[in-house]
Amino acid sequence: MQPIHSLHDFFLRSGAEIRLYHLGRRVEPCSLDTLAAFETGELAWPAPWQGTARLAMVFRLGDLEDPLIWFLALPLDEQVRLASGALEGSNVSAVEAMVSMIDVARRYEMQMKTISTADENAQRANSLLQVQG
Q: Least enclosed by CB within 10 Å: which of 25, 32, 74, 75?
């Protein structure tokens, strides 16, 4: 498996259902192709705000009930392109953080289902005791 180097790669390989939005002066939809062109430096960010590319990502992976929401503010250079070294120099790997967040969301859902099942079992046991008593 090849390493994932961009958000665009992450979303393509994960098969996530995704919606992207520019968070400039107005909230506007953004295509995955626009994100890819921006990450490779082929395109300037279409809706800059205070020197940053602000992006909202709403995505759903696999069997997760609730979508995951992520907000990013990426620094731009004077040509409104991704600032050189902005992603590489960050102390957080966006892709690793997303994978970790997805793992936590799946664990949370699994625990909630376990609690729900335990609650249902307790209610059934109580109803049996009420009928017999």
A: 25
| Alpha-carbon gap, residue 27 to 88, rounded angstroms | 27
User: What local confidence, expressed as pLDDT, does residue 19 receive?
Assistant: 92
From CA 42, how far away is CA 107, in angstroms rounded? 38
Looking at residue 83, what DSSP letter applies?
A: P
Tell me the pTM: 0.59
Greater confidence, 36 or 104?
36
Q: What is the token pair recorded at 4?
A: 């994932």
